[in-house]
Amino acid sequence: MGVETVRRLNLDPPESPPLRVAFLSLWFIDMVAATLFFVVPYANELNPVTVLFFEYLGFAGVPLAASLYAVIIMGIGHVLSHPRDIQFIGAMVALYTLFVVNNVLLLLSGEPLVAILGV
């Protein structure tokens, strides 16, 4: 009877701490904005998973859904090899920047980014 070696999953976080901090900062702002969408009457959360979590758990479901997204994104960044990990997290920072700008403008003005830009 032989001893089998278990193949371990090597987690390798992206080597750019500022990029991870930027992602988590934008993620936090997006989470707060998504929570506020359930409070203001003129804006709606469009993400069906966040809405489902809100329906079942109330306001606690919104940060829970957002945390799930962050864990998935950070997990993917840890599994990817260098330099793909940094490119992936960089792409997520770009997307979350767009989400945050849109959500904050929507909360402040009642108009989404597309309507403000006239596209």
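That was protein one. Protein two is written in the same sequence-then-structure order:
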Amino acid sequence: MADGETALKFQLIVEDEAALDRDRALVAFLKARIAERAKVAEEEEERLLAGVNRSLLEFEEKFEHPHRDDDRRSFFAGQIQALGWSLRCAAAAFSAHPDFREDFRP
């Protein structure tokens, strides 16, 4: 294996681990914001929070799946990317919160 190919594989592994760390932090951040808002939410916001929570649970299940990296161009990988992007959009609504991380932005 050429040095360039090895370096590229190492870079992809590091990027994957950084994304996984970000996604775990995003899940924790959104769960905390949902719990905070649920205490004072009115009916419309409750429905919105419930939808975000359903997406969050599906995302968490998929990004921790042992075969998530088997094929980066698969439908499964596309689902993870789409869910992650939509959840980062939802997290942006809380960008003024002190626990918000810039890497949560879509």
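The chain has three helices and no strands. Keep this in mind for the problem set.
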